[in-house]
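RECORD CONTENTS
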Amino acid sequence: MDLVYWLMLLKAPRIGAQTFYKILKTFETPEEVFLASKSIRKKSGLFSKEALDFLEKNDTSLVQADLDWADADNCHILTLIDDAYPQQLKTIVDPPPLLYVRGDVACLSKPQLAIVGSRNPSTGGKQNASDFAQSLSNLDIIITSGMASGIDASAHIGALEADKPTIAVCGTGLDRIYPAKHKSLAHQIVSKGALVSEFCIGTSPLANNFPRRNRIISGLSLGTLVVEASIKSGTMITARLAAEQGKEVFAIPGSIHNPLSQGCHQLIKQGAKLVENIEDILDELQLSLPDPALRNNSDTSTKNVDNNPSVLLKYLSYDAMSIDELVEKSNLSPQIITQELLLLELELRVAKVNGSGYVLIK
C-alpha cells in the first residue's frame, strides 16, 4: 500500500468519499487506479473528464506537502484500511478515506462521547459542558468535539482539567488552527489526545467543511450530548447526523426563555434523551461506573459545595438577575446582597453576565 496513491486519488476533481468507495470496489486499491490505462479508467464510468485528465498527469508534487507533514513528529495519515483507523467511524455511510491525525492515534479507537453546542453559550452552559466532560473523562470516556469557541472549547478544557485525553475534529488542514485563538488549547489537546481532520494540508476554514467535520465528530462517538443550541445551528446538524448514523443523542434542557435551550428542547421532543446527570448518559449507552464512590464523585448533579448555602440561592436562577431584582425578591439590603454574591462568585456557584446580571452556574 502506498500512501501517495491514496493522497493523489483524493486530490482528483469530483472524487468525494462515496465515489472513492465505488472506485475501490472496482480497482481494489488506489495504486491499481494509476496502473490502469486511461481507457480502462474511462470505461469504468467512475471518473469525470477532469478526473481522467488529472490521473493521467500523475503529478505527485501535488501531495508533497501532505507527505512532508506526515514525516513530522506526532503526525500521522491513516487510510481506511489501516488497523489504527477507528472502527466506530467505519460504521457510518461515508467514513473519510483518509484521516490526518496529530497526537495519539490510539485514543481514536477508545470509547468516546461527543459534546457540542453553541459558540456563544451562557455561563451556565459553559460550566455544564466542562463539568460533564470532566466527570465523563474521569470514567475513561474520551470527550470529542470540534474545538470551536463556546461549548466545544469548554468540553475540551473540562477533559484536560481531569488530566485526560480529548479529541478535536477540525474543519481545516492540521497545519493551521481555527479559530486562531485556540492555538494554546490545540497544543494541550495534542499533548494528551489528538487533533483529527479529513482535509489535506493547506485547507482553509471554508464554510462547507464544517458539516463534513460534524459527521466525523458524531461518527467517532458512541453518542452526542448537546448542551446548548439554537434551532438553526451547526450543533443541530451534528445531532441530526448522529441520529442518522444510529448513534444516541442526548440533550440538556434549559429555561424556556433562553433561545439557546430551544434546540435542546426540540431534540428532546424528537426523541433525544433528556440529561440531568452523567448517569442518564451511562444508562442509555449501557455503560457502568466501576465504583460507587466514583459514581458520587463523578455526578455533576450532586456536587455539594457547602453545608451552609447562601440565603440568596433560592432567589437566583439560570436566567440573569440584577441586584435590584434580587433586592425586590429577597427584601435584603443591596450591601448584603453584594457581599453574598461576591462569596458565591468565589465559590464558583454564580457568575456575573452582561455587566450587571448574575446567574447560577451550579
